[in-house]
Write a structure and sequence with these properties.
This protein has 185 residues and is of the alpha/beta class. It has a single domain, classed as 3-Layer(aba) Sandwich (Rossmann fold), CATH 3.40.50.300. The protein has 5 helices and 6 strands, in the order H-E-H-E-E-E-H-E-H-E-H. A 6-stranded mixed sheet has the order 2-3-1-4-5-6, sandwiched between helices. Helix 4 links the parallel strand 5 and strand 6. The longest helix has 15 residues. It is globular and about 40 Å long. It starts with a helix and ends with a helix. It comes from Darwinula stevensoni.
Length: 185
């Protein structure tokens, strides 16, 4: 085990990797962040959050990798400030409310605009099709299509089916992200 730890330290040094959690307001970003910070939260226990005005930042350790995770508010008035946080970002976790069919087009616009930024050119992208536990939620394939993810040719990305309140799919997504970041170095 010590050998594996030293392998990761040589790969990444002591630098924490910077991850942004972005998405429209109400998508589940803060719930996802605190599920990762406090994995001991029981499945089925509701994490109570309030709308994020500004940001939350936490250190998360996953598989011996240290992440500094920035959860940025998703309200219309806050989204223009996302770009202030793009510098030195290793990965973006983009959270979509799969049950919010009315705003999937806005979610796509924000994602496309964000991915056009030079500072995020090399960032790994994880899309979480969240709230899959709600009736009427779009499938992962529908979210993939609605966001136009087929157009992403030169970016490492993956989409995952999740339910933040139930804790479903988050471990799989974090596992993929850790591997993608490890392979990128």
């Amino acid at each position: 085990m010590g050998g594996l730890l030293s392998y990761f330290k040589s790969l990444f040094g002591s630098r924490e990797m910077r991850i942004l959690i972005l998405g429209l307001d109400g998508a589940g970003k803060t719930t996802i962040l605190y599920r990762q910070v406090s994995p001991e939260i029981l499945v089925g226990e509701v994490v109570t959050t309030i709308p994020t005005i500004g940001f939350n930042v936490e250190q998360v350790t996953y598989k011996n990798l240290k992440f500094q995770v920035w959860d940025l508010g998703g309200q219309t008035s806050i989204r223009p400030y996302w770009r202030c946080y793009y510098s030195n970002t290793d990965a973006v976790i983009y959270v979509v409310d799969s049950a919010d069919r009315d705003r999937i087009g806005i979610s796509k616009q924000e994602l496309v605009s964000m991915l056009e930024e030079e500072e995020l050119r090399g960032a790994v992208l994880v899309v979480l099709a969240n709230k899959q536990d709600l009736s009427g939620a779009m499938s992962v394939a529908e979210v993939h299509q609605a966001l136009g993810l087929d157009a992403l040719r030169a970016r490492t990305f993956q989409i995952f089916k999740t339910s933040a309140t139930k804790g479903e799919g988050l471990d799989t997504a974090m596992e993929w992200l850790a591997n993608a970041l490890t392979n990128k170095k």
